[in-house]
Amino acid sequence: MKIQLELNGDPHYVDIEPGESLLSLVRRLGAWSVRSGCDVGDCGSCTVLLNGRPVRSCITFAAKAQGGSVTTVEALGTPQALHPLQEAFLEAGAVQCGYCTPGMVLVAYDLLTRVDDPSADHVLRAIAGNLCRCTGYRKIVEAVRLAARRKAEGRWR
Ligand code: FES
Ligand code: FES
User: Residue 42 Cα, ligand 1 centroid: separation in angstroms?
Assistant: First the structure.
């Protein structure tokens, strides 16, 4: 079957396989930031925003994106012009191997669109479904709160 969706603002009309995951589809369409970790919905590394809210793309059928919009970190910043949230992750030392980072950034982005000044507990609750094997989470929490301060200062886009 064919579905129509927007991926990072670009329209697509694509064939999907029966039972194909959204993870498979977005990677086929070139969104290589979206990672496969566990492939069973446990780790969060495959997180994308579907119609503005985080979903685990490995356990979301591609067909669910019909008529919708999907956002990955490719839409936030580029290596030459990072989004302030991505800059905050780097500045706070919240990126080590980086495998979890695209999913973490998207969950944090979603949180900061809804909450202006999240507490550390609030951030921890928001990222509870995203596993990081490297950082111990403290620096990720610091990064999200740093990004919140930058947003309050108007340094956000
Ligand atoms: S790869 Fe999707 S939750 Fe782990
Ligand atoms: S930075 Fe390595 S898994 Fe999170």
Answer: 5
